[in-house]
Amino acid sequence: MFKNMDAKKKQLAVQVIYAIGGSLLFALGVNLIIVPLGLYNGGFMGIAQLARTFLVSVLHLPIPASVDLSGIIYFIINIPLFYMGLRIMGKTFALKTLITVTIQSLFLVAVPIPAAPIIEDYLTACIIGGLIAGTGTGLVLRGRSSGGGQDIVGLCCAKKYPNISVGKINILMNIFVYAICLFLFNIEIVIYSLIYTTVLAMAIDRVHIQNINTSVMIFTKKLGISKAIMEQTGRGVTNWDGEGAYTNKTSYILFVMISKYEVGQIKQIVHSIDPHAFMIFTEGCSVDGNFEKRL
Asked: Which of 23, 27, 150, 159 is nearest to 81 (CA)?
């Protein structure tokens, strides 16, 4: 299917697969594992779940137990956030997010909630549910979209402040939701919900590879790689002249800072000019200064 596509269409198709697959994973993790135990998400999804609890338990709306209203409420809450994404992240991001949130909301309504928990142990459910839902959210972000809510807020903040990640914003915004939960529910529910959302945030930051800074050192004997990297990626490159200790031949050393998402592109550029180039990739570098975070 991908063979006859050009590079842009292929990239878009991959991003769509990430968005749909990630949305489904998130809905499966939440509806099948977390909701049956009465646990709550953080952030805006947690607010949607609290609103659902109010409508069903307090106002006694006749909603079937297998249907979760959270998805519909979550979509409504996201409407003003689309404007923020449009202003800071651009039209393409806002449109992708609108489509993704719609898909995610539909999955949250469509995936049935089991009458009895699939995993009865709370700690195990928190870890597995967090990993599944966090991986799903990370895949959506990896597809250059967003599942809405605190993901939009996190991406907008991360673009303005390089040391902030989406996972960190998730944890900070969860404090508000769980403060409310402390007044409404058993403290045990709040503690396990915190464990779940912490695992979810960690999974997001591992899968959302645009968020991972990576430094690259390239050792080559051919010219033209620096120019190609700058033209094709827009990243700055630092050059040094070196000498092989064994061969005593001149070698060029290049240094560039990228996100992990761009590793494949860098490899392709370098190997197209020098198939024998030697490269070192270092993940998780702390960056201070003029470095563009492309989210």
From this structure: 150
